[in-house]
Structures are given as structure tokens and as C-alpha cells.
Write a structure and sequence with these properties.
Blueprint: E1 7-11, H1 15-28, E2 33-38, H2 54-62, H3 66-73, E3 76-78, E4 80-84, E5 92-96, H4 109-118, H5 130-136, E6 139-140, E7 157-159, H6 162-174, E8 179-182, E9 185-190, E10 197-202, E11 207-209, E12 212-215, E13 232-234, E14 243-249, E15 259-264, E16 267-273, E17 278-284, H7 291-300, E18 311-314, E19 318-320, E20 324-325, E21 328-330, E22 336-337, H8 345-358, H9 367-393, H10 401-408, H11 413-425, H12 438-447, H13 464-483, E23 486-487, H14 488-494
Parallel strand pairs: 1-2, 1-12, 2-8, 4-15, 12-21
Antiparallel strand pairs: 3-7, 4-5, 6-23, 9-10, 10-11, 13-19, 14-17, 14-18, 15-16, 16-17, 19-22, 20-21
Helix pairs in contact: 1-6, 1-8, 5-13, 8-9
Bound molecules: flavin-adenine dinucleotide.
Flavin-adenine dinucleotide binds near residues 49 and 346.
């Protein structure tokens, strides 16, 4: 084969495939041709409706207009995830996006808060989270800073309808020079010596040739696994949930600007409020709960009338051993799966795509480039995996064997070290460009009941009165700024949506 990479073929038209086509068209559209093949008969997985803040940058890179995006996808604003029954049955806390309190040069704000707790200065950690205070009032505003201060403002993401999202991306791509081919791929042709994929063949007999193949074919991993046999690293001993049941329901009153994650006896349920409906799903472990019981539990806990029968989606948590193998790069479900507890899958697609653009092999595929791409992807995936495992490990529930077993399970050494460090010192450090910031780890750990026994000595550098004053001032600034935001629905109306 010639070295130059001029023809990119994307297999799959779900969220991953259309994201790939959109970013390639935007960045490399003048130097490569982009063809996307999808099968209407197979369709898309059709879930994946909650996101995290980096999606704002991705949308901006594509030049999307936010109001149009929210209108087209029946979207809403997401300020964080409320975790209910996780640390213990009846508990609730939010992993809110954005900052909490105030930044200090050498230690986090939570050290000051921890001291204040020990000294009997009463407050809740989330009194200092602008995102949380705004979310619980069902409000939202685009704020870079708390007015009149240097304190950071509101950080947000979106909820949206997965089908409409894929459609929106498709419209964008078809206006950006991407060729869409509808049809079922029945086989791939490989170079006899290198094993590189040369073309895919549709049932109609049509051959689609390419230099680089992007596998976005969903769980089946049509090219990366079925053709190239790249292998899968199974993580189900750490993340034992293996099924989801998804059901949309009618909207029920206020459109909350946050996702809810409600732990049940063998897993958890999501609640994602959109304009026209609510997305619900129950992620559970089939070794501890039957499908019938999982469906009953799900339907008992939805708020509006179901709009369809619950749909079952089996999965195995883990990751493809190489995301890039030969001339094939996998994204989305074809590259691996982490349950949607922290809404990270679409982000992994988008950050992986950005990485591929950065490493784009325009002049031939070089092993060092492939290795570096795979190394970075692996680190990113594993850090997120650890963050998700933490939610299961740090629990005090005694009401079900599932939670007891999760608490007692062995965890990766990297996570064990983090938990130990936090427990004894209150310290947690983000490594490299890891996705979840210290503030995210602190919220989940404190929210699930792991309150450190010590705090940083810098928190002792002010008097008790100064500390009480600092806490009172910050709390009042956050409360005032959140009071002044508009209602979430008013914001959506200002984008031209029809409620
Ligand atoms: P799919 O949507 O399955 O698309 C596969 C595509 O490949 C389809 O177009 C299909 O037609 C095509 N295809 C397959 N085989 C062939 C063939 N032989 N010939 C032609 N075409 C073919 N992510 C989040 O970020 N937030 C969430 O809240 C979230 N929730 C989730 C909940 C669940 C239960 C699950 C399972 C996933 C969730 N995700 C979430 C992940 C998210 O849904 C996926 O990352 C995202 O939808 C990407 O899917 P995909 O495009 O990889 O696959």
C-alpha cells in the first residue's frame, strides 16, 4: 500500500461515528476524503444522553451555536450528578462540576473546611459549591465568575436525546463534505502480508476502499475485533455490573439541571431530564439480581409514565487491548466500555478523536506514533476506571450482599494508594492531564463518607475567627450568586426552545 493517508472510512453512524466524521471534516476535511458507512437495519445503541463540561469545547471547535444545539437535541443543562443511596442508603451528595470554595496556592480549600468541621464551625461542604447551590434551586446562568470576585463561576455540560444528537451531527457532516453510505458490511479485505484493511464490502457488493479505517461499529467491534482480533481486557472483577435496562418516561414537572444516580441493591439507576422526556436506566449486576427484578426496580423508581418497554443492553466492562491496531482506530463502544456512572463515554470518544487528529498519520502509519496514541489512551481510560471503581468501593451499605462485596473487593494498586493517602492526610493529587480534578475526587470521597482524619497545616495559619469569617463570606457569596441565576427553564426558553 502507498504510505499517504488520503481516504478515511468510518464504520458506524452512532454517536462515535458521527463525532469522528464531524471532527475530521472540520480539521482535516481539505486534505482527506471521509466516507461513513452505517446500517439502518442495525441502528444505533441510542443511549448516552449525559455529558461532562469538555463537550462545550468540542462543540465550540465544530462551531456549533449553543441555542440551536439545545433546540435540535431537546437538550437541557447539566451542573453535576446527584448520587443518592451510594455511601449509605438514604445518603445524598452531588458531584458538582466547577470549583468549591476558593483556590489556595499550596493546599485545597477542603483542608480549611476540614479544620472548620473539627472546630465546630458548622457548614456543609457543598455550601461552597456554586454549581450545587444553583442546581438544587433548579437555576442556571452562564457565569465566568461570581460577580464582583475572582471566584470561578458555573461550569456546565448538557443532557440531550442521543438519537437527535446523532442526527444533528449527521446534518453537520453532510454539509461538510462527508459521504454517507447506507448498507450492511459483510466482510473486510486485508492486505495479504501486512494484514492492513484495504476495503470493506457491503452486502450489495459495493466495495469501499480506504487508507485508514475508523471502527465505530459499537460493541461488536466489527474491524478492531472481528477482523483484527485485537483482544479485550476484562475489568468486570472491579466493575461487576453487566446489564442495563433503559426506558424513557414522560417529563414530570421541573426539568432539573442535573443527572440523578440512585443506587439500588445491585446497581444504580440514572435519571436524565430532557425537554420532551426523561431518560431512565438501571445498570445492574446479573449475578445479584434477575432481569425481572431489575425491571421492576426500575419501573418502581421512575417518576413519569413509561413511553416504551424497558430495553435490555448487556455489556462487559473493559477495554480493547489496543485502540489503534494496524490501520484501524476504534472509538466509542468498539474501543471499550465503562458504565455511564460519570457520563464519560462520549468524552472518551471526543478526547480520543482529538488525540488522533494530533497524531494523524498523513504520511504513513509509524509504529512509534501508534504506540504513543495507545499509551495515552490507555492511561486516560484507566484513570477514569479508577474514579468509577471508587464509587463502589467506598460504601458503608450493609443492606445487600452486592454492596458488601464491592466494599471488600480488591482494587487496583493505583486506587488503593489514593484512598489511603486521602484517608490519612486529606490529600489527593491529579496525575498529568487526568480528566477528573482533585475537586471531583474530594466530592465523591467526602460524599460517600470518607472524611479524612487530618488536614494540611496551612489551614492552621489563620485564627479560628478568621476561619469562621472566611467560611461565612464564601457561603454567602455562593448563596447570593446562585439566587441571582435565572430558572433553568427560563434559560432554555431564552434559547428558543418550546416547553
Ligand atoms: P452505536 O451507537 O452502537 O453505533 C454503531 C454503529 O455501527 C451503527 O450506526 C450501526 O449501524 C453501525 N454498524 C455496526 N455493524 C455494522 C455493519 N455490519 N455494517 C454497517 N454498519 C454497522 N455515554 C455518555 O457519555 N453518557 C451517558 O450517559 C451514557 N449512557 C450510556 C448508557 C448505556 C446503557 C450504554 C450502553 C452506553 C452509554 N453511554 C453513555 C455510551 C454511549 O452510548 C456511547 O459511547 C455512544 O453512544 C457511542 O456509541 P457508538 O457510536 O460507539 O455505537
Amino acid at each position: 500500500m502507498t504510505d499517504a493517508i488520503k481516504r478515511v472510512v468510518i464504520v458506524g453512524g452512532g454517536t462515535a461515528g458521527w463525532n469522528a466524521a464531524a471532527l475530521f471534516a472540520r480539521t482535516l476535511g481539505k486534505v482527506i476524503s471521509i466516507t461513513l458507512v452505517e446500517s439502518d437495519e442495525i441502528g444505533i445503541v441510542g443511549v448516552g444522553e449525559a455529558t461532562i463540561p469538555p463537550i462545550i469545547n468540542f462543540n465550540n471547535a465544530l462551531g456549533f451555536d449553543e441555542a440551536e444545539f439545545l433546540r435540535a437535541t431537546q437538550g437541557s443543562i447539566k451542573l453535576g450528578i446527584q448520587f443518592e443511596n451510594w455511601g449509605n442508603a438514604g445518603d445524598s451528595y452531588m458531584h458538582a462540576f466547577g470549583n468549591i470554595g476558593k483556590d489556595f496556592a499550596f493546599c485545597g480549600f477542603h483542608h480549611f473546611w476540614l479544620r472548620s468541621q473539627q472546630e465546630g464551625i458548622e457548614s456543609d461542604y457543598w455550601d461552597f459549591s456554586l454549581n450545587y447551590q444553583t442546581a438544587r434551586k433548579n437555576k442556571f446562568a452562564k457565569l465566568n465568575h461570581i460577580p464582583g470576585t475572582q471566584l470561578p463561576g458555573i461550569s456546565y455540560a448538557y443532557h440531550f436525546d442521543a438519537g437527535l444528537y446523532a442526527q444533528y451531527l449527521r446534518n453537520y457532516c453532510e454539509h461538510s463534505g462527508v459521504t454517507r453510505v447506507e448498507g450492511m458490511i459483510k466482510r473486510a479485505h486485508q492486505h495479504s502480508e501486512t494484514g492492513f484493511i484495504e476495503s470493506v464490502e457491503l452486502e450489495s457488493g459495493q466495495l469501499i476502499e480506504g487508507d485508514l479505517f475508523i471502527d465505530c461499529s459499537g460493541f461488536r467491534g466489527l474491524l478492531i475485533e472481528q477482523v483484527l482480533e485485537t483482544g479485550y481486557e476484562d475489568w468486570s472483577h472491579w466493575l461487576p455490573c453487566d446489564r442495563a435496562l433503559a426506558v424513557p418516561t414522560e417529563s414530570n414537572g421541573t426539568i432539573k439541571p442535573y443527572t440523578r444516580s440512585i443506587a439500588h441493591t445491585a446497581g444504580w439507576q440514572w435519571n436524565i431530564p430532557l425537554q420532551h422526556r426523561t431518560g431512565n436506566g438501571h445498570v445492574y449486576c446479573s449475578a445479584y439480581m434477575s432481569d425481572d427484578e431489575a425491571a421492576r426496580t426500575l419501573l418502581q423508581h421512575v417518576e413519569g409514565a413509561p413511553l416504551a418497554e424497558p430495553r435490555s443492553i448487556p455489556f462487559k466492562t473493559g477495554r480493547r487491548r489496543k485502540q489503534w491496531h494496524k490501520n484501524c482506530v476504534a472509538f466509542g463502544l468498539a474501543s471499550g466500555f465503562l458504565e455511564p456512572l460519570e457520563s464519560t463515554s462520549i468524552h472518551l470518544v471526543q478526547s480520543g478523536l482529538r488525540r488522533l487528529v494530533q497524531h494523524f498519520p498523513h504520511n504513513g502509519i509509524k509504529p512509534a506514533e501508534v504506540d504513543e496514541f495507545n499509551r495515552q489512551s490507555q492511561v486516560e481510560f484507566e484513570k477514569i476506571r479508577d474514579f468509577i471503581i471508587m464509587h463502589y468501593k467506598v460504601n458503608a451499605r450493609t443492606d445487600s450482599q452486592f454492596w458488601i462485596d464491592c466494599r471488600n473487593m480488591d482494587i487496583p494498586d493505583s486506587l488503593q494508594h489514593r484512598l489511603e493517602l486521602f484517608k490519612t492526610s486529606g490529600k489527593v493529587f491529579k496525575e498529568g492531564d487526568e480528566l477528573f480534578q482533585e475537586i471531583a475526587w474530594q466530592q465523591v470521597l467526602i460524599g460517600q463518607g470518607l472524611v479524612p482524619s487530618d488536614y494540611h497545616p496551612l489551614a492552621d495559619s489563620i485564627s479560628r475567627e478568621q476561619l469562621a469569617g472566611l467560611m461565612a463570606d464564601l457561603k454567602s457569596l455562593v448563596a447570593g450568586a446562585s439566587d441571582n441565576c435565572a430558572r433553568h427553564e427560563e434559560f432554555l426558553l431564552s434559547c428558543g426552545v418550546q416547553l
